[in-house]
Amino acid sequence: MVSTKHLLWCVLACASQLVDGLAVQKPRDSKCSANSVRGTQATQAKGFGDGLPLRIMPLGASITHGYKSSDGNGYRKYLRDQLEKNGNKVNMVGERTGGTMKDAESEGWEGYKVDQVHAKADKVVPKYKPNLILINVGTNDCIQNYDIPNAGNRMIRMLNDLYKESPKATIILSTLIVNANPKVQSRVKDFNNQLKMLADRYRAAHYRLVLVDMQSDAGPKLSDLNKDGVHPTDEGYKKMANIWFEGIKEADQQHFLQEAEKVNGIPDDGPN
User: Fold this and answer.
1) Cα 249 to Cα 61: distance, rounded to the nearest angstrom
2) Average pLDDT over residues 131-140
């Protein structure tokens, strides 16, 4: 298990080397509860960030890609539809396409562990400069029992690079969903505890990061998993989308969302 002291040292060391525009003023209460994320009428009409275009990179493995969903869209279309209905233009970006949705890009790579997703992100984040990154990665590490005690440090290295590569990005970091295999679920709990610790340190250092809990009461349950006991059903993916939406709402309430850097050939709005 990564010690709290070591995690704190890593994050604070990085905080001393923040790139311009990364640090934010001390946020308000960051607990993402049903009461704290209930939007006002004005927010609902204008969209998050007063209608700020959201260039979103879904980052992770097969769950991010939408594996085992009936249409291949996973949580992405549910979430995109909610955001557009709320008043935001949305462009999903990444090197992969999957599903029936038109704006189908993501960085969801089946079978990939944290370090492999990190390597992919290092290549594509500087290209697309997303202003919103949704991270759900680590299930394969838990299934393969790969370096779980060092998971927090490996995630820290990826997060630090993401902020350097897209300085205006807000990161919504999710815990891993429930797993039907008891041994894997035990590792998932360990992994998630490390995520919660590092998220606390990043927020204390005023990074634009929101942690969302996919094992909260609103998250997918064992009954929302496919027969493989790993990937959500359509209902499970819908629950994930709702939690992502609440996390983005929380980021808006904390005034984290920033305009994406201009990149030639990348419009504010993806295909509908």
Assistant:
1) 24
2) 99
- Name residue, tokens 């209905």: 85
Q: What is the pLDDT of residues 211-242, one digit of tens each?
A: 999 999 999 999 999 999 999 999 999 999 99
Q: Which two tokens stand for residue 114?
A: 């944290």
Tokens at residue 1, please?
Answer: 């298990």
Q: CB count, 10 Å around CB of 264?
A: 4
User: Which residues make beta-bridge pairs with 106?
Assistant: 96
Please give the model's pTM, rounded to 2 decimal places. 0.87
**Type and span of the H or E element at 55:** strand 54-60
Of 217, 162, 213, the residue nearest 188 (C-alpha): 213
Looking up tokens 């927090």, which residue turns up?
A: 152
Cα four-point dihedral sign 38, 44, 48, 50: negative
151 CB neighbour count, 10 Å cutoff: 25
263, 98 Cβ separation under 8 angstroms: no
HSE (CB half, 13 Å, CA atoms) of 34?
A: 3
Domains and CATH numbers, the chain: 4-12+52-253 (3.40.50.1110)
pLDDT digits (tens, 9 = 90+) for 73-106: 999 999 999 999 999 999 999 999 999 999 999 9
In sequence order, which ranges of the chain are alpha helices (DSSP H)?
A: 4-15, 41-46, 48-51, 62-65, 76-86, 114-128, 139-143, 151-165, 182-204, 234-253
- Measure the CA–CA gap between 136 and 132, rounded to whole angstroms: 13
- Can you tell me which residue has the tokens 């929380």? 250
- From the list 140, 129, 74, the residue with the least C-alpha distance to 265 is 129
